[in-house]
Amino acid sequence: MTTSKKKSVLGDNIVSGGLNALFGQQGIDVDVDENKGDAIENLNVNFIIANPFQPRHSFDENALRELANSIKENGILQPIIVRVAKESKDKYEILAGERRWRATQLAGNETIPAVVRAYDDATMMQAAVLENLQRENLSPIEEALAYKQMMDVLHLTQVQVAKRLGKARSVVANTVRLLTLPQEVQDWIQTGELSMGQGRTLLGLHNKRQILNLAKRVMQERLTVRQVERLVNEMNENKVVSKATPQISAELKETEKALSDKLATKIAIKHNQRGAGKIEINYGSDQDLNRIINALGLDLND
């Protein structure tokens, strides 16, 4: 492998003002300090690999080509940040700057300026998520998967993830909840056919089939989040009503009416799927109760 070392010709202010401003508050040091022996190296692009914890699954090809054209004209204005790969000591893993690395390859450059650091897995994961979130390059599903990966691999709570990334806990919680949606709905959010707001609103339903059907309707009719909220509320209200007042057969309804007519009061027959149930007889006073008892032919004095 061929690398060449040189002085930090880009200047500390560029590195500090860029990546260090992005990561500094989270305690990730990416500043270049020549007094400590730091230097920018020109690394062969073929010996660099992506961050193993990269949460982004897709890159905008048009944006990469634009960046590649800029690199051809102006060069790399800010070095990427890497560490020596854990599995292969002759390669490097990117902490930050994967887009620049990919665009550099598109531009046909064989080398790229880089700062080599010693980072652990936790820092690599945190930095990969942070860079993408700050630059708004992640889809809602990629963001949710990134949070979950941090919780699973680093054994963090939602509160701890939020603190490390400078996010509100509610943001982390609501985003991770998207992963409980059916996979088809997650795919539609990933491709942008559904928005994060629409996806979060669909979480108000607890039946997978209802969620899928409503999601399809949202895409077909291009419903707003507010319209989806109204539909979810209506569906939940109808579910409550149907549970509270189960339907009875036409035959039982006729029986209910006949009893009501005979006793001159409201009668309700409640019947379950097992064939059992109960008859409720309403009365308005003690005198009304005695009347109903007499109408039933009961003699309570015996």
Provide an overview of this structure:
- With 302 residues, the chain is an alpha/beta fold.
- It folds into 3 domains: 3-120, Conserved hypothetical protein from pyrococcus furiosus pfu- 392566-001, ParB domain, CATH 3.90.1530.30; 140-243, Orthogonal Bundle (Arc Repressor Mutant, subunit A); 250-295, no CATH class.
- Helix content is 51%, strand content 12%.
- It contains 13 helices and 8 strands.
- It has helices at 12-23, 61-74, 98-106, 121-134, 140-154, 158-165, 169-176, 183-190, 196-202, 208-221, 225-244, 250-263, 286-295; strands spanning 3-6, 40-44, 48-49, 80-84, 92-96, 111-116, 267-271, 277-281.
- The strands form 2 sheets. It has a 6-stranded mixed β-sheet. A two-stranded antiparallel sheet has the order 7-8.
- Helix 6 packs across helix 7 and helix 9 (196-202) packs parallel to helix 11.
- The radius of gyration is 33 Å and the shape is elongated.
- It starts with a strand and ends in a 7-residue tail after the last helix.
- The relative contact order is 0.07.
